[in-house]
Amino acid sequence: MAGELVEAMNMVKSFRVSDLQTLLASMGRSKSGLKHDLVGRALRLVQTEYSPELLKNVRQLYESRFPKASGWLAARRPEGVPVAYSSLSSSPTGTQGADYLNGIPKLSSTPAAEVKLVSLPFYQTLETLLPPTELIAQNSEKLQDSQCIFELTQSQADQVRNSTELRPGMKAIQVVLRICYTDSIGVQEDQYPPNIAVKVNQSYCHVPGYYPSNKPGVEPRRPCRPVNITPWLHLSTATNRATVTWGNFGKRYSVAVYLVRVFTSAELFSQLKHCSVESAERCRERIQDKLRFDPENEIATTGLRVSLICPLVKMRIGVPCRVLTCAHLQCFDAIYFLQMNEKKPTWTCPVCDKQAPFELLTIDG
């Protein structure tokens, strides 16, 4: 249900005034007011009175405007605004030579369409070099080696070679390797198998290590991120070989290789500031809703207190930011939040610990 709620809210954000008025009228709500008033009213309606009928109305209105668009990612940004991320499993496949895994032709392996990888805000997929393909154990040994073979086109190699550097040794255009559980149900997050090691063209790549824990009895946590294999590739049309060493302990994993553009926290903040700012009028409405008298409730709210100190860094908030699905008014600093998720991605609200995905962030007006 949470996924459908997010989908509906993102669709509502892309509606025109006429669409918003139609939606509100169909649900017996007032359709008067400026666009930001209508958007706020429609979002509140979706949050508080979510139902199959409402979802159907939202989808019909959205599909009437975007007949060829699919999924909530298309609804996240207004027209003409570049998207900072995309579904890695649905990206266009680049022109390749024959791709193999464990010496088996790609056509004989697990169908790639069954596994869908979660989209990542800091990565925009440009090409799919190897679609999600299952790691297959060759024997009964606990430690397995699986080889992937792929090639870059000349255009792809030039893109990587000529891209700018985000910092020394890290290019903006990269080739990354992602691993997840092999599961056709739901969208899969990156998940490393035990004893993972990645070798590209006979050279070992850096795989993110464990975060140390300062709490007694708590095991260190390993961030499962895309593995940047760019420095070890042949930036030409020559064949590249990636070998994944993994522990075979009963779970099934899939591996995929993508050509991506990497975004910085500053670039994500620029996009957030450009297209996800909540108006001051909407903020006032939210406060009024909190203070509105409810005759059915014996307890009435007579005052609200929020802090100007960011709960993340304990400093004054510079750019107040909230999550659309959170009920609290307390904000946190957008810049620090994005910077911290760039280094250690958790995407969790620092106020209430609920999920805070990038597509639901909004700057408080």
TrEMBL record:
Residues 104-263 form the PINIT domain. It is found in: Nucleus. It comes from the Eukaryota. GO terms for molecular function: SUMO ligase activity; transcription coregulator activity; zinc ion binding. Residues 295-365 form the SP-RING-type domain. Pfam families: PINIT, SAP, zf-MIZ. InterPro entries: PINIT (IPR023321), PINIT_sf (IPR038654), SAP_dom (IPR003034), SAP_dom_sf (IPR036361), Znf_MIZ (IPR004181), Znf_RING/FYVE/PHD (IPR013083). The keyword Lipid biosynthesis does not apply. Residues 12-46 form the SAP domain. Gene3D superfamilies: PINIT domain (2.60.120.780), SAP domain (1.10.720.30), Zinc/RING finger domain, C3HC4 (zinc finger) (3.30.40.10). The keyword Transferase applies. This is E3 SUMO-protein ligase PIAS4. It comes from Oncorhynchus mykiss.
